[in-house]
Write a structure and sequence with these properties.
Strand order of the largest sheet: 4-3-2-1-5-6-7
Helix content: 25-40%
CATH topology: Aconitase, domain 4
Radius of gyration: 16 Å
CATH superfamily: Aconitase, domain 4
Strand content: 15-25%
CATH class: Alpha Beta
Order of helices and strands: EHHEHEHEHEEEHH
Structural class: alpha/beta
Length: 171
């Protein structure tokens, strides 16, 4: 198993019940270019948060992040926008799996939801299952399974499969 490097970024704090329609509105589902999708991430939030989301951003949300329709495009848009990781009190199950499949780390850490503020800097260490704020405060979460850690380390299921097929071709 290849271990993913720790992820450090600034927090953009969201609310409870941020569904996939809020992450990426349904009217954009006919777009296939990930960069074009990224331009529409969270654009309907008031006050606007989209302008604060860029490479390395860690999105922090409350309960049921990613509920609603099971569209993979919502996660793809976050990845294309450069979001480094997601931390939430809880995730909708299929959204969580879409995040893993597309190589976007998603961490359930309900305690952090109460204590981390918008703009804080966090470091996520998936291997040790720790989330550390720049002031030294540490929260724990269940580290991903070896298989999920492998998927995240290589950027998702598609790249993991390519690598497995390349190994099989050499044998």
């Amino acid at each position: 198993m290849k271990s993913a490097s720790p992820i450090t970024g600034r927090v953009v704090r969201l609310a409870d019940d941020v569904n996939t329609d809020l992450v990426l509105a349904g009217e954009y589902l006919n777009i296939t270019d990930p960069d074009a999708l990224a331009a529409h991430v969270l654009e309907r939030f008031e006050p606007p948060v989209a302008d604060r989301i860029g490479p390395g951003t860690i999105l922090l949300a409350g309960r049921a992040f990613g509920g609603g329709s099971s569209r993979e495009q919502a996660v793809l848009a976050l990845v294309a926008r450069g979001v480094g990781a997601l931390v939430a009190a809880s995730f909708a199950r299929i959204f969580f799996r879409n995040a893993v499949n597309l190589g976007l780390p998603a961490v359930e850490c309900p305690d952090a939801w109460w204590d981390v503020a918008d703009g804080d800097e966090l470091t996520i260490d998936l291997a040790s299952g720790t989330l550390t704020r720049s002031d030294g405060t540490v929260w724990s979460f269940p580290a991903p399974s070896p298989f999920v850690a492998d998927l995240l380390a290589v950027g998702g299921l598609e790249e993991w499969t390519r690598r497995r097929l390349a190994i099989a071709d050499r044998t």
